[in-house]
Structure formats: structure tokens, C-alpha cells
Amino acid sequence: MSNILDQFKLDGKVAIVTGAARGLGQGMALALAEAGADIVAVDFLPVTETAAAVQALGRKCASVQANLSDRAAIPQVIAEARKSFASLDILVNCAGIIRRADFVDFSEKDWDDVMGINIDAVFLLSQVFVKDVIARNAKGKIINIASMLSFQGGIRVPSYTCSKSAVQGLTRLMANELASKGINANAIAPGYMATDNTAQLRADEKRSNAILERIPAGRWGTPEDLKGAVVFLASPASDYINGYTVAVDGGWLAR
Fold it and tell me: What is the extent of the structural domain holding 72?
């Protein structure tokens, strides 16, 4: 009889993680490696630090430098990954950007740039990944990174709010179509995390205090807080979970 903890192991699996150079993407890549997976680290920035940390855990790491805002580059991510690994089992769509301005002043460029990375690339990369999985008659796991603004409107971030609401909707659509093919699609909605994207908020003492007052846990989240959720959704332990968005938010949505 197998131990339930064995269901969380990712030995022999390969996980693609976008936005893996730093922050939440790096943290999730390391979590998956700790659980036994080899990693394909994808980012516009160099992923040298992430690759070294993965290898220090005894796992393999392939590095793919790609600008996901360039649609032509997206199929090449999978092609490059397949040069290093025969199978691709897990896709974590973490790459994302944010732009802040009042609604009446928000520029078309800031709209297009954010939507291009946060939702267009998620759709297109997931599509290429799914085609590869189906062609191999294999099973797969897709984990999209949503947000508190998948549930709420936010302030001064119109394109980010729309993109993250779209991520949640796309995750549900993907689950509806792909579950019968042995591919699970779920999402993680991080709460307010201490990353580059929130540096401006954390530097604003009044805004930061207002946020912390609402979080029952009383602190900003860290990349380490996502480790359990990403390993769970990538593992056989979550095989009957489809189309769900798991909030890792310190209780923010409970208020």
C-alpha cells in the first residue's frame, strides 16, 4: 500500500516554469525541483541563479531565454525544451508584468504590454504545450498564476485586473476541454507578495499599512508560501482537481 506522501513526488517529471529568473517563478521552480522534477526555466532575463539552485538540488535545469511578448517566440520555448527533455509534463505560467496609472490616463501601450504577457502568452504557450502532450499520448498539468485581482477590481491597474480575471476564466475553459484528455488545468492566486511587482506598494507606507491591516496573517507573502500549492497542483495528489483557483493569500479574501 502506497504512502499518501508518495502522491506528492514529482520524480521523473519535467516542469516548464515561465518567469523563473526571480520572485515567485523562481520560488516555484525550486519547489518543483525539491519534489523531484527537472526544470525548464524560461525568462526574458538570464536564469543563471535559478539554474544553479535547481542543479544544487540534484535536478537538471534547461535554460530558455525568451520574450513571451513576441508571439513567434512561443513555439520555440517548447521546441527548445524538447531538445533537453524527451517529455514535458508540467507547465507553470508565471511570467507577468504590471503597469500602474489612473484609469483616465492609462495608455494603450501599457494595456497592450500587460495583456500580451499576462494572458496572450498564457493561452498561446498552453496551447503549444497541450498539443505536445496530446501528440505523445501523455498526461499533463497546467498551473496558471492568477491574482487577488482575479476576484477584485483593484485600483490603477486596469490591464492587470483584466488579464488576471481572464487567466481565471481561461483556466476554467481549459479544464472543461482538457480534463477528459488527462490534462489538469488549475490556477494559483497569490495574495500580496513581497516581489518586484509590489515594490511600489510596499514603499508607500500608508498603502502598505492598509494592506497589512486587512491580511489576517499580518504579513506580506513570500515565494516560499507558494511551494506547497504548486507541488500539490503539479502532482498526482491533485488528479481530480480541475479548473480551480487556489488562493494563497494569508486570508485576504476571507475579510
Answer: 4-247
231 found inside a domain: yes
Which residues are catalytic, by number? 160
Q: What φ, ψ does residue 185 adopt, rounded to 5°?
A: -125, 120
DSSP state of 202: H
Q: Which long-range contacts (CB under 8 A, 24 or more apart) does 65-72 make?
A: 66/42, 68/18, 68/42, 68/44, 68/95, 68/116, 68/117, 68/121, 68/125, 69/113, 69/116, 69/117, 69/121, 71/120, 71/124
The CATH number covering residue 172 comes to 3.40.50.720
* Rounded-to-integer distance, Cα 1 and Cα 196, Å: 45
pLDDT tens per residue across span 48-71: 999 999 999 999 999 999 999 999
Q: How many domains would you assign to the chain?
A: 1
DSSP conformational letter for 227: H
Q: Is residue 188 part of a domain?
A: yes
Q: Are 61 and 84 in contact (CB under 8 A)?
A: no
pLDDT digits (tens, 9 = 90+) for 207-246: 899 999 999 999 999 999 999 999 999 999 999 999 999 9
How would DSSP label each residue in 72-126?
Answer: GGHHHHHHHHHHH-S---EEEE---------GGG--HHHHHHHHIIIIIHHHHHH
Cell numbers given for 182: 488527462
Residue 101 DSSP class: -
Number of H helices, E strands in the chain: 9, 7
